[in-house]
Design brief:
The protein is an alpha/beta fold. The chain is built from 23 helices and 28 strands. The protein folds into four domains: 6-65, N-terminal domain of TfIIb; 75-153 and 342-559, Rossmann fold (3-Layer(aba) Sandwich); 168-317 and 585-596, Dimethylsulfoxide Reductase, domain 2 (3-Layer(aba) Sandwich); 616-754, Beta Barrel (Barwin-like endoglucanases). The structure holds iron/sulfur cluster. Iron/sulfur cluster binds next to loops.
Length: 760
C-alpha cells in the first residue's frame, strides 16, 4: 500500500497538480494535510515524470483553496442576470429544477437546444460530459476553447497521421523549434530543462515569434515573422528542404503519401516570395530550414498562438506535420514519435475516455444538426466519422479519437441563441470556463447570454467569475485538490493516470461527476451512470488491466503500455506492420481525409482575414498588427486574478508591449495607460516599452478581469476594461479557419493612443 504518515492529525497524500489551480505540467506532488486542511505541497520525487512542482504557483495553492471568495453553496439567481443577487439553495433542489427545465426545453425545441461550454482541461470528466450529451440526444453542441487551442491541431494530426504526435523529448533531440509559444511563461519546467540542455552546447534552438521571448534570447536563430504568416514560413522551409535534398528519402519513399504533390505545391513558396509575406529575410528562411533538417532528430514545441489565427490557422499544423514526416522525425526514436492507442498490458486495454462516450446513441439525423459541422467539417461529426473508420480499420479497436475532439463552432452557438438560426439554442451548461474572457468577440457573447432566448444558463465554478454572474444557477464545484482523478487526458496519451484528492471538498462542493450523474438520473438515463463515486468509475476503467484506482493513484501513478504501439509494430490482427491509421496507411502529405471532406488536400498560405494586405482600408486607420493572448505566469488563463492568494500581488495591472520607437512617436512612456482599439472595441493596459518587438506590432496580455471591481452590472468585475477579447473577431464565419471553425484572436489590426486621464 501507499506510504503514508498520520501523526498528530497530519497525513500526506500523493496528488497530481493540473489546471485549476495548477497548469499544464501535471506535476506529481505530496500534499501535507493537517486535520483535514491542506497546509503545504512539495514535489513527489518518486513520480515517474520529471515534473515535480514549481516555485511560482504551487506554494500559493493553499491560499487559492482557502480564499474567502471560493463558492461553497449552490446559488439560484434572484432578479435579472448580472444583478448579482442570489439565493442559496440545496443541491437536490438545484438539480431537480435544472433537470426539469432541460426536459421542458428538450420537449419544446428538441435535444439540440442544449449547449455545453468549457475551457482548458479543468476536469477528468470530459467523457461523462459527452456520455450525458449523447444520451440526451444532443449533436455535441459543445463550445470549446480547444477550437482555438490545440484540439484543432490534434484533429489535423489524426487526419494526416491517424494519431496525434508525441511531444519531442528534450534529452533525445538535437534541434528544437518553438513556434508561437512563450515557453518561459506557459511551461516553466520545460523552459528550465531547455536552459539546462542549451547550456550543454549541443542543442540547436530556433524560436519563431514576432516577439523576442525568453527562449528567443538564447536561440541560435530567432525568426521574427509577421504575425499570422507561419504557414508561409513553413512552406518556405519545405521548399528549401526538398530543393536542397535535405529530406529523409527512405522514410518518404516507404511511409509517406503524396510527396510529389507536396513538392509541386512547395515550389510556389521560394524563400524570396516567403520573405515578402513574412518579413523574414530569405537567408534566415534558408538557414532556419537547414538547421531544422540537418540536426535530426528535431521537434516542435507545442504552442497555441497559431491555433488562434482564424482563417488558415490549422494549415500551420499541416505544414508542421509535413515537415516532421519528410525529415524522418516521425520515426521511432526520433523527435516526435507517433504512438497508437493504449494502455495495453498483457494484450488487454484499459478503458479510454472515448470508450465511455456512447457515440452510437446519436442518430445520423441528429449528428447533422451539430452547429457548424456542415461548413467546418474536420472537428465535427463528418471528420469524426471518417477518422473513426480508419482508426478502427487499422487498430481493430472500436474507439477512434479523443472524446473532446468533435465539437461545434462556438460563435455559431451565440448566433443560434440570438437569431434562432438554424434552430433555437435555449439551454447552456458552462463548466470550467470563463468564456467571456477566453472566447472571441465579448459583445456578441454577452448579448447571447443576456438574451431571453437563453432560458437556462447553469455555471459550474470555483469562483464567481464574470461569466458566472450571468447565470441562473451557479453550482460550486470541487477543484483538483478536492477530488480524485483518473484520465487518459482527453485521449492525448496512451496511458491512464490517477491521482488522489488532497482534501475533502470545501463547503457543499462536489466533483462535476455529481452533476452529470445527478442530471442523468433525473432525466431518465441514470442506468448509464451506475458508478456512485469517481473512484468506482476509475476502478471500472482499470478493471480490464487487473488494477484498482487506489493502487494506481498511490503506487504506480500511470499505467502505460508494455510496448508503445507504433506504425512499425506488427499488428496482431494482420501480422504486418501497423502503419498509419489513414486511408493510405501512410503519413499523408496529401491528405485523403481533407479531400474527402471537400478541402484542398495540400497545405497553402492565406492572408489573415484582417491585415495590411487583406484589408488595406482598415489598415489606414488601424495601422498596427495586434497580438492578443499573451499568457504570463503565475496566472493560468483567466485564473489566479484574486488578491490575497499571492499571485495577483505580483501583477496588479495588465501590461502590453510596444516598441520603443513607436511609443516615442505616439508620446507614450513606460507604465502609461494606453488605449488599444480595433473595429470591435477598445480596452486599456499599461505600456511596457521594448526593442524586442517589431515597431509595427503590439502585444497585449490576455484574460484580464478584476475581482476587486464591483460584481454587478455594468462592471461585471471589470469585464470590459482590459479584456483582449473585446478586440477580437468571432461574428463572421468567413474569417474562421475553414476546416475547423477556429476564430481569429491574433494578427488583427489596431490603433493605440495614450490614456489622457491615467488616474481615472
Ligand atoms: S502549477 Fe506548478 S506544480 Fe502545478 S502543475 Fe503547474 S508547474 Fe506543476
Amino acid at each position: 500500500m501507499a506510504e503514508r504518515t498520520k501523526q498528530d492529525g497530519v497525513e500526506e497524500k500523493k496528488i497530481v497538480c493540473w489546471a485549476s489551480p495548477g497548469c499544464i505540467h501535471q506535476c506529481g506532488l505530496i500534499a501535507t494535510v493537517k486535520d483535514g486542511k491542506l497546509i503545504g505541497l512539495r514535489g513527489n520525487k518518486d513520480y515517474p515524470t520529471p515534473n515535480h512542482g514549481c516555485s511560482d504557483r504551487m506554494p500559493y495553492h493553499p491560499n487559492w483553496l482557502y480564499s474567502p471568495d471560493q463558492l461553497l453553496h449552490p446559488l439560484k439567481r434572484k432578479g435579472e442576470r448580472g444583478e448579482n443577487r442570489w439565493e442559496q439553495i440545496p443541491w437536490e433542489q438545484a438539480l431537480d429544477e435544472i433537470a426539469a427545465k432541460l426536459e421542458d426545453l428538450k420537449e419544446r425545441y428538441g435535444p439540440e437546444t442544449l449547449t455545453v461550454q468549457e475551457g482548458t482541461y479543468r476536469s477528468d470528466m470530459y467523457p461523462m460530459r459527452t456520455r450525458f450529451l449523447n444520451l440526451f440526444g444532443n449533436p455535441s453542441n459543445i463550445g470549446c476553447a480547444g477550437t482555438i487551442c490545440r484540439c484543432n491541431t490534434v484533429a489535423m494530426n489524426y487526419a494526416l497521421l491517424g494519431m496525434t504526435n508525441a511531444r519531442p523529448k528534450l534529452p533525445n533531440i538535437n534541434c528544437l523549434v518553438i513556434d508561437g509559444c512563450a515557453l518561459g511563461q506557459t511551461a516553466p519546467l520545460d523552459f528550465q530543462r531547455l536552459q539546462k540542455r542549451k547550456a550543454q552546447g549541443d542543442l540547436k534552438l530556433i524560436v519563431i515569434d514576432p516577439r523576442k521571448t525568453e527562449a528567443g534570447r538564447f536561440a541560435d536563430i530567432w525568426v521574427q515573422l509577421r504575425p499570422g504568416t507561419d504557414t508561409a514560413l513553413f512552406m518556405g522551409w519545405i521548399n528549401v528542404i526538398i530543393e536542397e535534398g535535405l529530406y529523409d528519402k527512405e522514410f518518404v519513399e516507404e511511409w509517406t503519401f503524396g510527396f510529389d504533390e507536396l513538392r509541386r505545391r512547395a515550389a510556389e513558396y521560394t524563400p524570396e516570395k516567403v520573405a515578402e509575406i513574412t518579413w523574414v529575410p530569405p537567408e534566415v528562411i534558408r538557414a532556419s530550414a537547414r538547421m531544422y533538417a540537418t540536426n535530426w532528430p528535431a521537434g516542435f514545441h507545442w504552442g497555441s498562438a497559431t491555433d488562434m489565427l482564424g482563417r488558415n490557422s490549422v494549415r500551420v499544423e499541416q505544414t508542421r506535420v509535413c515537415l516532421r514526416a519528410i525529415t524522418g522525425n516521425l520515426k521511432v526514436g526520433g523527435g516526435e514519435t507517433i504512438v497508437g492507442p493504449g494502455p495495453i498490458v498483457d494484450g488487454k486495454i484499459g478503458i479510454r475516455d472515448s470508450m465511455l462516450t456512447l457515440p452510437e446513441k446519436v442518430s445520423p439525423e441528429q449528428r447533422k444538426k451539430q452547429l457548424g459541422c456542415d461548413r467546418f467539417r474536420l472537428m465535427g461529426w463528418p471528420g469524426y466519422e471518417l477518422m473513426a473508420k480508419y482508426h478502427e480499420e487499422t487498430y481493430g479497436i472500436p474507439f477512434p479519437v479523443a472524446a473532446h475532439n468533435f465539437v461545434a463552432v462556438q460563435p455559431l452557438i451565440w448566433k443560434a441563441i440570438l437569431e434562432k438560426d438554424p434552430y433555437p439554442v435555449t439551454a447552456m451548461i458552462t463548466w470550467g470556463s470563463n468564456f467571456l474572457l477566453n472566447g472571441g468577440d465579448v459583445k456578441t457573447m454577452y448579448k447571447a447570454i443576456k438574451s431571453p432566448n437563453l432560458e437556462l444558463h447553469v455555471v459550474l465554478e470555483h469562483f464567481m467569475t464574470p461569466t458566472a454572474l450571468l447565470a441562473d444557477y451557479v453550482l460550486p464545484i470541487a477543484s483538483k485538490l478536492e477530488k480524485p482523478m483518473c484520465a487518459t487526458h482527453e485521449d492525448f496519451a496512451p496511458n491512464i493516470a490517477c491521482s488522489e484528492a488532497a482534501v475533502e471538498p470545501l463547503g457543499e462542493r462536489h466533483g462535476d461527476f455529481h452533476v452529470w450523474k445527478g442530471l442523468a438520473e433525473r432525466l431518465g438515463f441514470g442506468e448509464y451512470f451506475p458508478w456512485t463515486t469517481e473512484e468506482e468509475l476509475a476502478d471500472f476503467r482499470l478493471a480490464p488491466l487487473g488494477l484498482t484506482f487506489k493502487e494506481v493513484a498511490t503506487e504506480k501513478y500511470f499505467v502505460r503500455s508494455d510496448e508503445p504501439w507504433t506504425y512499425e509494430t506488427i499488428n496482431p490482427r494482420t501480422g504486418k506492420k501497423t502503419g498509419f491509421a489513414t486511408p493510405s496507411g501512410k503519413a499523408e502529405l496529401y491528405s485523403n481525409i481533407l479531400e474527402q471532406l471537400g478541402y484542398d488536400p495540400l497545405p497553402f498560405y492565406e492572408e489573415p482575414p484582417e491585415s495590411p494586405i487583406s484589408t488595406p482600408e482598415v489598415a489606414k486607420e488601424y495601422p498596427y498588427i495586434l497580438i492578443t493572448g499573451g499568457n504570463f505566469r503565475p496566472m493560468f488563463h483567466s485564473e489566479n486574478r484574486h488578491w490575497g492568494i499571492g499571485t495577483r500581488e505580483q501583477y496588479p495591472d495588465p501590461v502590453m508591449d510596444i516598441n520603443i520607437e513607436t511609443a516615442r512617436e505616439l508620446g507614450i512612456g513606460e507604465g502609461d495607460w494606453v488605449y488599444v482599439e480595433t473595429l470591435r472595441g477598445v480596452i486599456r493596459q499599461r505600456a511596457t516599452l521594448t526593442d524586442e518587438i517589431d515597431p509595427r506590432v503590439v502585444n497585449v496580455q490576455s484574460h484580464w478581469w478584476f475581482p476587486e471591481r464591483p460584481a454587478r452590472e455594468p462592471w461585471l468585475h471589470g469585464l470590459w476594461e482590459s479584456n483582449c477579447n473585446v478586440l477580437t473577431i468571432a461574428d463572421d464565419p468567413d474569417t474562421f479557419d475553414q476546416i475547423t471553425g477556429g476564430w481569429p484572436l491574433r494578427a488583427l489590426l489596431c490603433k493605440i493612443y495614450k490614456d489622457p486621464a491615467p488616474a481615472g
